[in-house]
Amino acid sequence: TLLLGLTATVTLLIGWRVDVVRLLPQTASFYSAIGLGVNLRGVVFENIKTSREIHEGVPVMVVEGEIVSVSRKPVEVPRLRFGVRNGLGAEIYNWTAMPSRTKAEPGERLSFRSRLASPPLEMHDISVRFYNRRDARAGLR
Known about the structure:
Shape: elongated
Largest sheet: 3 strands, antiparallel
Oligomer: single chain
Strand content: 35-45%
Distance between the termini: 55 Å
């Protein structure tokens, strides 16, 4: 009975790890340590590509890709945050953009495309992530 109870508890803790981390955020490091990632947003980025274009004589950096819902229920899709990094990995410029839709159904793929006119000359690469509370506290819009 004890073994069955432990097995059921472990199964619940693993199967519902997103809910567990929502309730007890400190458990995220435990799940990470045993190789089980926790995606609280329920969405991931895929197929991110960057390209350069010239628009009316101005160089433009284009970032495009897909946001994929990996949740079993509809999820909110937050604002996107793009960061330009130099060769040392330091962020030298950033901007945000709204996704094409703010809700995604399970398994749904939403395309995004954002452009930056006159990117900094020292640009090495671009990071893409979701806007979060830390960005809001820093005053990034």
